[in-house]
Amino acid sequence: MALLPQNLSFSRRILPIIALVGLAFAVFFIWRGLPDRSLSEPDQEPARATGALANSSRVAGAGLVEPSSEIIDIGTALSGLVTDLRVQPGDYVTKGQPLFTVDDRAARARIGETNAAIGEARAAIAEAQTAQRTAEAQLALYRSVEDSAAVSRSEVIKAEGDASSARSRLQLARARLAAAQAALSSARTELGRLTIRAPITGEILAVNIRPGEFVSTMGGNSQPFIRMGETRPLYIRIDIDESEAPRIKLGAPALVSPRGAADRQVNAEFVRAEPLVVPKTSLTNSASERVDVRVLQVLYQLPADAEGAEQLFRVGQQVDAFIPAVDGENNGGGKTQETAE
Amino acid sequence: MLWIAIRMLTGDRQKFYGLLFGIAFSTLLITQQLTIFVNLLERGASGVYNVSSADVWVMDPVSRTSDVAYAMPSTALDQVRGVAGVEWAVPHIRGQASVRTKDGDLEGVAIIGVDDATLIGLPKGMIEGSTDVLSQPDSVIIDDVGAARMFPGASPMGERLELNDQRAVVRGIADAIPSFTSTVVLYTKYSQALRYVPGTRNRLSFVLVGAADGISAKELTERIEKQTGLKAETRDEFAQGGVNFIIENTGIPLNFGITVLLGFIVGVAIVGLTFSLFIRDNIKQFGALKAIGVTNGKIAQMVAIQAGMVGMIGYGLGVLGTVGFISAFSNNPTFKGFYIPWQIPLISFAAMVLIITLTGWVALRGVMKTEPAAVFR
Amino acid sequence: MSGQNTTTAIRTRGVTRDFSAGQNTITVLHGIDLEVQSGELTYLVGESGSGKTTLISIMCGILWPTQGEVEVFGTDIYALSDTELVNFRLQNIGFIFQQYNLIPSIDAASNAAVPLIAQGMDRKHARERGVAMLEKLNIADQADKLPNQLSGGQQQRVAIARALVHEPRLVVCDEPTAALDAKSGRRVMDLLREVGVAEDRSVIIVTHDNRIFDLADRILVLEDGRITHDGTDMPEDH
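Output (structure tokens, whole complex):
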């Protein structure tokens, strides 16, 4: 082996360099290969309690948006075909405004009929009155003749009978008029019942009928014909697990955000807690589901002036809510919140 | 003198390469086996680490790992949300289902249902498609290893599956670390998962929780446990729980422990024998140097630099070999996500130092005990 | 050939050395008193087992005597500390081993320069001195070769160069001619006298090679741990 210094020795020079470079490469590789286990922030904002509630005791619940009147399923008093639909979903209607009409031709025909009957009755009355007048004039003539021989007794009796009969006919004719008038009124009422009107002022939420469809008083159709409710303001019905219910601070405003827009939170005013604790509405939609969780329903009112609330909250939407808890049960968080406010 | 020492070391190539081989081989054996061991164990935690944004996992008190979980009533989510310090909490469902593949085979899959609104619970990265596809009806996202297993050689995109009599369409591939059993994983929305997993009354497997600023995850778990009576674990605790479950329920630790021990013993044997042979061969030279007037301290330095050099090179090559091994197999689904924890090269380094010091010390003792007068015999 | 200003190179007084062999103690040297002058080529002759190796080891400071003292150029070497003794050897004594004990993985010049390197001289400079020394010994052309590429005689010359390169005042030489034929042996002895023995330097040669007895300035015969002869010639019975 030549030992000139410029001669590279594999064992003494190259191998250590290979080892060092290899080590450096290994360090790099290991460093690069370390798994990224850092915690990351969620891409989409999850529902979270903010502000004073963020770090104090609270109760959380999920709920649904509903009209303050609750949802009214409009029905019909009379069966028949829908002839005219006056509203569409989203319309804001005032109380008494027609919503739709059911086929009224039969009712209208009856009105015509009764009108004719009224005319007929009126004619009968006139005829009876004429007859009565004639009979009474005849009778008066006979009565004014003093000579009893001039008028036979039987003629007088006949005239008296005519007069009486004419009175009776007049009464009958009057009674027929009254009957016809009553029938008219009845037909008019029926006509009115064929126009379905808004029971309250509110918003049309859903329309499930089209003109030409048959609406029945028996229902039959599984869907309500028209759903409406007062959406000014909107209410939120929040389900609180019964085990959490004692902790809830009734009367305090709730922090509410719709699903999917958890960063847009609004403060909702307390309305009332329902006196009845009900089984939790199932989320799985499975008929076989057994439910052993009961929930207290608490109502909150969404502020009407909340920015974008119109677009943010819609009836039937699911929301996440945070409600302050009563103090002292868990930690001092609630108390500090009290003093802070 | 150190120059002479290095010359002495590399002078006999056979012994030098024998030494290098011994050290590199045992480094490779220890590092590689420990790496595989640790990675296999961490498969037990992959379900936890795949969820990148949850600080705390809340579960039924009897649940043990991300795959061995007992479901809770759905109101548990609201209970957890009610705990102070919980910034957010989302539902998470993990269930088993059987899926009928196109060939008619039955394959057991894991269904993971993530929060509908935020999709928290999905793996961080996607290989194909985007997480938005879950908003389409009947969408599922399959994990990459599962995709390779279930649809070998074909893209799973658009494939239809039948799950619990429901239709599911694969619309994305997630970049996830497979679980210990390498079960195919289908990610979908929570509401969808409820339909895919054959139902029992309670479905909610976990509640994933993000801690508010200013509260540690550990503190939060205590608070949640106290207030709700559920079991809460931080991400690391829960990951560790998954690892412990594998340790307790499989023979892996014992088997790999034995291999690592064998690697160590083989390493000590090869290195020790070669090194002491090398020193013994050179003992005459060392004796001559001692007679000429080289102090024992200098001799020790010479042996030390010989041991250090051969150790450094051998260790470097061994670690390089491990790195090469891991990177060569990184595309194999079995080794997906395998990495070398930085502690392991340090452990094998310590083992190497120990082996070298031990054998070097034994060899040195021979040199030290050599009487310089022996050179006259 | 002793010069006018001869000084005492080595003086031993009552040097005794015991070796323990199991339970028994074997006394190898029995109170050796002798002086070696500088500028002399001194032979230490004896049968194997006579204790000559032990004596030479003690004289050059690599084996502790059980009793007695050794002065090398006026220094009581066994009164020195270990490190001082090692350093003393490094500065003052050159060794030529029977097996040469060259380092196989470095070239001849570097082998010759080992004492200088051990003294702390930088490698390049030391090697130059080693080459210069090899030149004196007429094998400078082999300076770049490894020991196993050299013949036995060349290796011995390298060993001699190593012993002399740092200009020691005492050179110890163990059986230099044992492996050589008579002619080569004499040439080596000539060489040793030529480059080794200087005015202020003493060369001690351990040997039992009777072919070269006539080349000594002084012959010491050791038998059973005692000096039995001290003179310029060998006694008749050897």
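The CA atoms of residues 52 and 337 of chain A lie 6 Å apart.
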